[in-house]
Amino acid sequence: MKIGCPTEIKPQEFRVGITPNAAQEAVAHGHTVLIQAGAGVGAGFEDTAYTAAGAQIVGTAEEVFAAADMIVKVKEPQAIERKMLREGQILFTYLHLAPDPDQTRDLMASGATCIAYETVTDRSGGLPLLAPMSEVAGRLAPQVGAWTLQKANGGRGVLLGGVPGVSPARVVVIGGGVVGTHAARVAAGMGADVTVLDRSLPRMRYLDDAFAGVFKTSYASAGNTIELARSADMIIGAVLVPGAAAPKLLSRAQLSELKPGAALVDVAIDQGGCFETSKATTHQDPIYDVDGIMHYCVANMPGAVARTSTLALGNATMPFMLALADKGWKQACADDPHLLAGLNVHAGKLTYAAVGEALGLDVITPGDALKL
Fold first, then answer.
1. At 23, phi and psi to the nearest 5?
2. Over the range 233-249, which residues count as b (16 or more CB within 10 Å of their CB) and which as e?
3. DSSP string, 213-246
4. pLDDT in tens, the chain (372 residues)
5. Are 98 and 271 in contact (CB under 8 A)?
6. Model confidence, pTM
7. What distance in Å separates the CA atoms of residue 204 and residue 120, rounded to the nearest whole number?
8. Cα separation values, 168 from 164, 179, 326, 343, Å
9. How deeply is 273 buried, as exposed, middle or buried, from its count of CB atoms within 10 A (0-12, 13-18, 19+)?
10. Closest-CA residue to 272 (of 250, 311, 299)
11. What are the backbone angles phi and psi of residue 234, rounded to the nearest 5°?
12. By the 8 A CB rule, do 257 and 226 touch?
């Protein structure tokens, strides 16, 4: 198979879909790997590293899309990239379709087979291709939130860890999954007073046992959420419904109940955001003010630490990429129901129920897609 990796063109996105190590593995499996010139530079991988791994360097994204049987990326294809997709081509990348009707329609119109990293599952019910970036985003969230809290950035002017004689910042993390756990660990490590909200009693028991008082847990009822939010200096939104639009946890009306200059860090922005006032921003212009509350809603947070993120993502995606290349997508998905769960679009049909529900579109099952 010819596997193509174009340069990411989303603003301030420095990650790359294929590492030199992954390219070397694919070449060893007998495949051709086409890397757009300079695609890995933002993550610290020069073209020479790819040629040493056996990959071929091509000049433009158009050449990559025209020649490749499978396109491997990081972020969802932008409008100009979607026009280059063709019938029968495989797209393997993050898609986040639920809040993005334009992308969904374009991918359906392309005829391509689109497999989303964020809905591939594992035996334990986890999301193995989302988890590495969730870990990165979770660990980044208190860091960027602390920056947002600085007075020069419109925040409350509160130091996360406080100092002797001055109380630390109060941080509320909504969601105790991968993002929330890593966010809480780092925020507590920075000295903040941290509470994690979740609706799963088994998950809260696990967090209490595993972290033994490093941070507190509380049940995420609507009343409890706003009560804790009122006292918070920073609120981190870390709620995920796999493949679906994120639920709205704080309304605009409730912003008036928060501390002036409080920071909202919405890690769920890729799925539409979990605060009513959230809108996607970029690393270049990451924060904005709504009613005196500072919002940090960068849609590709892990891109800020592109090398770490690329290596972590590449470790997770490589086995699936090789399976798709070795077997073809139909056989690979037929053999692995967890990879089949990643199928979102095929032959003009939407194949992921939560996306169809979010966008009001008809859906077929992934199993039916295998028969097309």
1. -60, -45
2. bbbbbbbbebbbbbebb
3. TSSEEEE--HHHHHHHHHT-SEEEE----TTSPP
4. 999 999 999 988 999 999 999 999 999 999 999 999 999 999 999 999 999 999 999 999 999 999 999 999 999 999 999 999 999 999 999 999 999 999 999 999 999 999 999 999 999 989 999 999 999 999 999 999 999 999 999 999 999 999 999 999 999 999 999 999 999 999 999 999 999 999 999 999 999 999 988 999 999 999 999 999 999 999 999 998 877 888 999 999 999 999 999 999 999 998 899 999 999 999 999 999 999 999 999 988 999 999 999 999 999 999 999 999 999 999 999 999 999 999 999 999 999 999 999 999 999 999 999 998
5. yes
6. 0.89
7. 25
8. 9, 22, 53, 45
9. buried
10. 299
11. -140, 135
12. yes
What phi and psi values does residue 241 have, to the nearest 5 degrees?
Answer: -115, 110
Which two tokens mark 107?
């991918």
Separation between Cα atoms, residue 148 and residue 160, nearest integer Å: 11
Beta bridge partners of 287: 296
> Which residues carry out catalysis?
96, 270
Q: Which residue has the tokens 């993550």?
A: 43
Q: Is the dihedral of CA 227, 229, 232, 236 positive or negative?
A: positive
Q: What are the residues whose beta carbons fall under 8 Å from the beta carbon of 79, sequence distance 6 or more?
A: 102, 106
Tokens coding 53:
């791994």
Per the structure block, which two tokens stand in for 253? 């009306």
Beta bridge partners of 115: 92, 343
